[in-house]
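Q: Joint fold for the lines below.
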Amino acid sequence: MSERVKVAVVGVGNNVSALVQGIAVHRATGSLVGISRPVLDGLGVADIEFAAAFATSPDKVGRDLCEVIFLPPNNFPRLASELPLSGVTVRRGLTGAEPGEVERVAGDLAGAEVVLYAAPSGRPETARAYAEAALLAGAAFINTTSDAVARDPQVLNRYVAAGLPLLGDDLASQFGTSVVHHALLRLLEERGLTLTSSYQVNLGGTEDFKNLVENSNTKHQSKLNALAANGSAAERVQVAPLGYLPHLESQKVAHINIEAQAWGGTSVSVDVKLKVHDPAGAAGVHVDLIRIAARALRQRRSGYPAEAGPLLKSPPGTSV
Amino acid sequence: MSERVKVAVVGVGNNVSALVQGIAVHRATGSLVGISRPVLDGLGVADIEFAAAFATSPDKVGRDLCEVIFLPPNNFPRLASELPLSGVTVRRGLTGAEPGEVERVAGDLAGAEVVLYAAPSGRPETARAYAEAALLAGAAFINTTSDAVARDPQVLNRYVAAGLPLLGDDLASQFGTSVVHHALLRLLEERGLTLTSSYQVNLGGTEDFKNLVENSNTKHQSKLNALAANGSAAERVQVAPLGYLPHLESQKVAHINIEAQAWGGTSVSVDVKLKVHDPAGAAGVHVDLIRIAARALRQRRSGYPAEAGPLLKSPPGTSV
Amino acid sequence: MSERVKVAVVGVGNNVSALVQGIAVHRATGSLVGISRPVLDGLGVADIEFAAAFATSPDKVGRDLCEVIFLPPNNFPRLASELPLSGVTVRRGLTGAEPGEVERVAGDLAGAEVVLYAAPSGRPETARAYAEAALLAGAAFINTTSDAVARDPQVLNRYVAAGLPLLGDDLASQFGTSVVHHALLRLLEERGLTLTSSYQVNLGGTEDFKNLVENSNTKHQSKLNALAANGSAAERVQVAPLGYLPHLESQKVAHINIEAQAWGGTSVSVDVKLKVHDPAGAAGVHVDLIRIAARALRQRRSGYPAEAGPLLKSPPGTSV
Amino acid sequence: MSERVKVAVVGVGNNVSALVQGIAVHRATGSLVGISRPVLDGLGVADIEFAAAFATSPDKVGRDLCEVIFLPPNNFPRLASELPLSGVTVRRGLTGAEPGEVERVAGDLAGAEVVLYAAPSGRPETARAYAEAALLAGAAFINTTSDAVARDPQVLNRYVAAGLPLLGDDLASQFGTSVVHHALLRLLEERGLTLTSSYQVNLGGTEDFKNLVENSNTKHQSKLNALAANGSAAERVQVAPLGYLPHLESQKVAHINIEAQAWGGTSVSVDVKLKVHDPAGAAGVHVDLIRIAARALRQRRSGYPAEAGPLLKSPPGTSV
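A: Joint structure:
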């Protein structure tokens, strides 16, 4: 029987809400709905357990993780009528204002094997400071944001030297716009059609989405990294500005259009509307990254574990 | 340099119009738009040449193939302002009323290496009679309709015995509803989502489509054969009745909906509208089947060539 | 203060389930959501009360109306966690097999002022027999099906002679495909655009919908009556076959497409997906028809009350 | 027989291209396709004639109007294979750099009765300077941009004092996102449904659209003015950021979503994709505004002619 994976989470937003609740539902009901890999490297979803959590907002610090996930601006829905307390008290994260903070956080990691960095994108210094804390504590680190951490050679080299795994950057959603758009463009190519033009529009209502809208540079580069896999077709694909529409709450809506030419130059058009809960798409990938990170740590593999590749948009080697 | 493939076509409907015109456009302009495989088994698209054509309607018989493809009820558009005559005169096909007809048609095949059966679905006896004529003439036979020919063991055995290739049944469009629906359902499964329900609605305006509406049994079985590859998911997929809407002309419109559950049981929905020219989707596959058939014949391979599989909905071994 | 309207319902399907539950929700919460006219002719929604109910299925007869609305094949959802019993026991309706049935039912109407005929479409004789029973009992009659009752001059004349109101036929949903399609076509015309072509596809999952699919003649005529208001445009509008997709349950999905030409002959296209709960769209109109019928009865107005016109697809004077 | 209306156009962008070409098609073919009002105040579409045109780009000045409309970045398509020269040479417009420019332009108006201001939005000073030139020349003025001209009380008062008509601001497209969205929201309300939330996304590929994206403030206020007619519902409607997608060329694509509640609180959703040629939607309204302006001038009516109201988004009295 496998030992449970102890995880520390940084940031207690919607994605962590989805992660915590989804694992609880799976434990309570045994349901495998939406779980991509019930067992990964010998570890089940129920083998993930939370050991520590960090946030900066004063109304979050000091309360139980399972209360904090429901505080606004979080708006991911309650998945079940009851969720027992976790026993994990949310601690004060890095503020950048005090000396010795990184060491303090490292000390608070409470023996976690894996640090899941799930704070908002757009603060690369903070992300790298948490990576430093994890390194001090001897933990694996997962950067789910679009900030450059794993694809920053300096950080990666330090992890390699320390013999610890480092996973990132920017997780590919389990089933989001990129996944569907990419699959349709690939299908078009496989079937011999010629792409004329294509666009995608993304609309969302979470605080994370709002941050992306206001801070779209690293995210935009990360999206281009994801589309580069489509080769020359990428030039013909346009990404409209993100739209923050609060009433969507934790849902994300995407409109995808593809115009192409088939045999004889005749026209083909494909229009897609996709509606997902963004935090669920993230959590479904978190559970895989956590298990990959834990196994790599236990096997003393250092640096970037290549098997995480399909789950990330900007792995080491892509543009910063 | 390869010898040109001589093809006889049975039925001069929209699909043959798209095939004849598309090859002419490719020859005139060199355009590779919409051509899946520019070279297949050493043969280019321009290596296909028409040697004979058969129809039953009195106003078609006796005229040049390149005139007949524009006669109503054909409604596939003109792809270029000019199309030279082919030099192939459309001959009277099998009527079932005269003795010795099969032999007559076999004699009229004019040295064709490949017989492309592209008449309307729904007349299995006629389809098999043409297969018999091709066999007498020593030609390969391609059944593009949903009628059982290649998946009829008796017919297949005769072809094997004669050392001739037999391809069929029911071609999968180059890029049609089945292809897109199947790809999305597979993607869903790959990403670990759980299908709740799905539907497709198909609307079209060609004479072929009208025939399908009126004669939907073999077609329906063939669609089920195509979906069976999705395994248990197939039970949750519903196909609405076909709708014949004349004003769509040679376009086909499909509405596809997929409802699924992701991580934590959260809902995911995908809605697709697909718009294609049905005959172009057929012609794009015809050019591959013709070249596979020609190569198999020239290599003296008998029976069903397995490489045709991805291009067919109901290959040998599927339900009749 | 107004006296409550006593209503007898014939048929205890999804539409009656939506009606009964919606009134209960309104009574319990005061909510006016989805209620078109809170007060109509001095009567509120809460002024409607059920006095009798009729069904033919043996497992429905003898049980309370509020239990029967949840029996399969009904699949309209529960709107609230609790629904008290109604005190109305469902009685055996007309079977056509016994003498004196019409008189028996008339006697069982229990002093109802309004008879709401909400059985499945497709049994015009039965519909007219209930109209006869209502007439005997001195009640107003509402035919919500597409069968010809109010537009049958013989029946209408009998109601006029008896001094009783008769409303029908075929109710226009509060917000369904016809309403939206009609509004968009009218908008197009108002703005000076020229319609090229248009289609609608309707998909549903209720037992009523299944009956329509199997018995589409009177329904089809009724749809044409509804579209005739669009004048010449109606010729360019095509209605695809109805699709019965059980997994939709009580939802109806419609796909509407409009292709048009604007200034200079440039193309305009509008694509709509509409998703509604069909029984709710019916119930929202039932509450208006019931109140119109009651008021007409109390004011001793006989025959067809013109103010019901906008709520009906085939009023008196349209084709049978 | 009516005297032709002489029009001067300011700005020779896509909208003027659509206007000039559409009138030419109507003259050549008599086609009334897409023409909202064939005769308005006694004037036909063919009664509009161009007398002068102004642009600032050096490659436009000095060439015939019918050549200039096809110069990039204009990308509205050619409507007919041939378009004769107009005989109107494009003159240099206001640059703001020289003294006496307004007087020069007034002199160049060449007896025009109506000045149609169709330059890009976002330069209110320039718009008002042209209004001054028109006033000097005794012409009616139409401001089709979202800049405040007619709704600027100072400008309006000067027109009233001079006895000249002034029309504006910001024309409502003949059939655009606002028109369709507004109609559906109104329909929802008429039928008694309760709006939950709604959004619209607008994507376009013209230079005008690009300007709007970069300069969205006056446009945004103008859109709010247009939606204010929906009353409280406006609060629940969100407008996503405009997306400039060059490959759309002169097409505009809008995605509209409406979520509502019907009877019993059941959910209703409407999704619309709208595809139009934006310049055609503008030109179809230009021909009406020009004729209203000409008639008002000829009847010596001064100030804002109220009958222009339905064609404008921000008439006098709305917020600046």
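Q: Anything notable?
A: Chain A touches chain D through 20 residues (CB under 8 Å). Residues 5-172+280-311 of chain A form a domain with the Rossmann fold fold (CATH 3.40.50.720).
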